[in-house]
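FAQ
Q: What does a multi-component entry look like?
A: The components come first, one per line:
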Amino acid sequence: MLIRLRFFASLREALGPEASLELPEGASVAQARDALIARGEPFAAALARGRAVRAALNQALCDEGAALKAGDELAFFPPVTGG
Amino acid sequence: MAQRVSIQTADFDLGAEVAALRAGDGGVGAVCSFIGTVRDRSDGSAVSAMELEHYPGMTEAAIEAMIDEAHRRFDIRAARVIHRVGPLNVGDQIVLVAVSSAHRGESFQACEFLMDYLKTQAPFWKKETTPEGARWVDARVADDAALARWGIQARNAG
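Then the predicted structure of the entire assembly, as tokens:
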């Protein structure tokens, strides 16, 4: 299944604003992050485990355990700092 | 219903916004407002300018949901949130939260609740310009703690 990816702030600067990712049916957000890390640089450094990365699935904050389905919009970004 | 959430590059006028919030509602007895502005110092460095990025679509939906939650928790009449994006200078207004209620306690509380929620749950990111160069602002654990006072566990910074 194909997932649409979006990146914001420092992750957008490192990875570009958008990308796509092919994943097995039922994959989780954590598996999407791992698949990107496996692509190597610049994804491996930007999304490395231990770095503070937050995710939103279809424009709502989510945990990395959330399950993905075809056509979903998955965003990765650093902790938010508005207000 | 009057517009509750605006994400915009343009500045805003507190007086005009409060007037609109109160207009036609004789039940209002209190209005509380908060404005966040661009400071000239951050984490020990001089700040000369700032750029604010957001996640169009998600931002508006997230703040609308926050206002719904404020209405569930507090006996308020109406709420208005304006958040600016794009380039800003020192002293510029960044964010407005204004809440009306019958009595002061509810609008004071709802205004603080909305700001605490927004700081950790709305997708905005600040980039500061300093003499050492531009840098993304780090999230603060203290902001997660502020939201925890309302019984909501945020894991934004931590």
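Q: Is there any commentary attached?
A: Sometimes. For this entry: The longest strand of chain A covers residues 2-7.
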